[in-house]
Each structure stands twice: as C-alpha cells, then as structure tokens.
Design goal:
Blueprint: E1 3-7, E2 10-13, E3 18-25, E4 33-39, E5 46-51, E6 58-60, E7 68-73, E8 78-83, E9 92-99, E10 118-123
Parallel strand pairs: 2-10
Antiparallel strand pairs: 1-3, 3-8, 4-5, 4-9, 5-6, 7-8, 9-10
C-alpha cells in the first residue's frame, strides 16, 4: 500500500556530493525496513544501504561505507541518502525501497514497495 517518491539525483563530478530523499505515503516508514537499491548501467541491481524496521540500525554495502549515510525523519515520513566523495562507479539509477524486513530489501521479484528511481551520474 505504501507509495514512495525519490528526488535529489543529478550530475556531479567525482569527489562531489548529493543527497537523495524518499518520501512515503499510505504507510509509516516505521512499519518497514527502508533502504536504497541502485542499478548501474549494464550491471545487476545491488543493495546500497538500509535501516532495520526493528531498531533503526543502519547497514551499508562495503564499498560505500564511510562515504554514504542513510537516515530517516519519522515526522516527515522520509528517508535520505547522503552521498559524499562520489566516484564514477556510483553512477546508477537509485531506488527507494520498503519491505517487511532487511533481507527482503534484496528480493527483486517483489513488485511492490519501490520508488520510481532517480538518476545519479558521476563524471571523472
């Protein structure tokens, strides 16, 4: 039932920063594991970052740790992805994701709980 809308993508040079946002409607983000999945051109989708539905614990893909930060604002029903020190390999469409649990964030057969995606392009 939850609907997700992402924003904040764009074109940035290597070493720059972007902040993505994802606002939910039709449900509270407190009731879901929330996260970000990206789809690089010519590659499979991959998990980037997530927040546990149980305690808000943050989890990250290894190669973004120390550069990306996921956060949530319960009052605004919104999650964010702060991306710093961006690299060309970060270029992808980034999707907001809501699921029943953290591990289900990577169940790509699930057709619900996805935002429309926002393009991030990092030049060298």
């Amino acid at each position: 039932q939850v609907q997700l809308v992402e924003s904040g993508g764009g074109v940035v040079e290597a070493g720059g920063s972007l902040r993505l946002s994802c606002t939910a409607s039709g449900g509270s983000i407190n009731d879901y594991a929330m996260g970000w999945i990206r789809h690089p051109p010519g590659h499979d989708r991959e998990f980037v970052a997530g927040i546990s539905e149980i305690d808000g614990q943050q989890y990250y893909k290894n190669n973004v740790k120390g550069r990306f930060t996921i956060s949530r604002d319960i009052a605004k029903n919104t999650i964010y992805l702060q991306m710093d020190k961006l690299k060309p390999d970060d270029t992808a469409v980034y999707y907001c994701r809501a699921s029943r649990s953290l591990v289900r964030l990577e169940d790509y057969s699930e057709t619900t709980g996805w935002g429309q995606g926002t393009q991030v392009t990092v030049s060298s």
